[in-house]
Amino acid sequence: MKQKTPKPDRREYTLMIVPHHTKSVFRICIPIKTIKYTAAALGICLLLLSGTMLNYRFQANAATQDKLELTQLREVNDKQKAQLTELAKATADLQEDMNRLNQLDSDLRRMVNGEEAAETSRSAPARLSNHNGQGGPEVKPNIDQLTSLVKELRAAAIQREESLTNIKSAIASKNERMAVTPSIWPASGEVTSRFGWRNSPWGGGSDWHPGIDIASSYGTPIMATADGTVTNSSWFGGYGNMVEIDHGNGIVTIYGHNSRNAVGVGQHVKKGQVVAYMGSTGMSTGTHVHYEVRVNGTAVNPSSFLQ
Fold it and tell me: I need a labelling partner for 302 at 20 to 30 A (CA). Which of 133, 267, 288, 290 fits?
């Protein structure tokens, strides 16, 4: 059975324009196909235009977002640059502080040992204060350089802390030794008799004098020449009123011929503390203090201890 071929659509629309004043009527005939094609074309154009508008809006939003992010990144970058500059300055200041600590370390070692210890290290040479010559190209710091420098400074700080701790211990130990080592004059006055052989004040040639005699006014204060513990404070034969102080390490000092003792047995005294008052008790020809230093029971020359 044969299919019928559809007849072409020959419909059309007539557009009439009727002017005034009885002029001719203007007539336009528009085929239905033309209207359909025009409508389809307009639809396609609208779709394309809508897509273009949507894409433009999307691109515009994306560009705005990118611009905002770029602005934020620039702000962050500028802030980071400022922070790096400040960090570099702070690191440089810290390096200067380490240089001063190094110099202090060296000075303290010379004070403790009389000379700089050979093992003293340096993280950088000390900066001279009377010169300011500097130069070289300007190089902006970067994070890797600063991180490396901070690590070096941290290691140097740990090493310096250990070194200063050792120096502190050495100073404390030295101060303890100095405190218990006779090193000051027991009284003000004139030395009337020195350590060793002398012409006997009692006549009959020479005698051995195991200390020094210091003469001054009656009642002149007599001071302990080092820290220690009083082991005797009484009348002791020819010494008269005598004070004996044990300083440890086998060192003992004796103060004789006192008018009055100011300390008792078992009392701990400090260097420079008054322990007696000058007099002329015992075998004495006048007001003075007889001062002795004994090391492991043997009298030694006190002058080697006096400053």
Answer: 267
Last residue of a domain, one of 48, 73, 98: 73
The structure tokens listed for 184 are 């000051």
Confidence of residue 137 (pLDDT cuts 50, 70, 90): low
Q: Could you tell me the two tokens for 195?
A: 């350590």
Residue 180, CB-side half-sphere exposure with 13 Å CA sphere: 17
| pTM of structure | 0.55
Longest dimension (CA), the chain: 179
For residue 302, give Cα distances in angstroms to 158, 165, 183, 191: 44, 34, 9, 12
Contact 254, 243 (CB under 8 A): yes
| pLDDT given for residue 228 in this prediction | 96
For the chain, what's the residue count? 307
End-to-end CA distance of the chain: 145
Query: For the chain, what is the total number of helices (H) and then of strands (E)?
Result: 2, 14
Tell me the helix, strand and coil percentages in the chain, rounded to 5.
40, 25, 35
What's the number of domains the chain is made of? 2
Helical segments of the chain, H only: 32-113, 143-179
Segment among 61-75, 156-170, 224-238 with least mean pLDDT: 156-170
SS3 state of residue 151: helix
Q: Could you give the CA distance from residue 117 to residue 296 in angstroms, rounded to a whole number?
A: 32
Q: 204 lies in which domain range?
A: 190-304
**Quick one: average pLDDT of 71-83?**
83
Q: How many other CB atoms are found less than 10 A from the CB of residue 229?
A: 15
What is the domain-level CATH number for residue 279?
2.70.70.10
Tell me, rounded to whole angstroms, the distance of Cα 56 from its chain centroid: 61
- Please give the Cα distance from 275 to 227 (Å, whole number): 11
Give the pLDDT mean for 5-28: 70
The answer to whether position 2 is within a domain reads: no
Give which of 234, 220, 217, 230 is closest to 282, Cα–Cα. Answer: 234
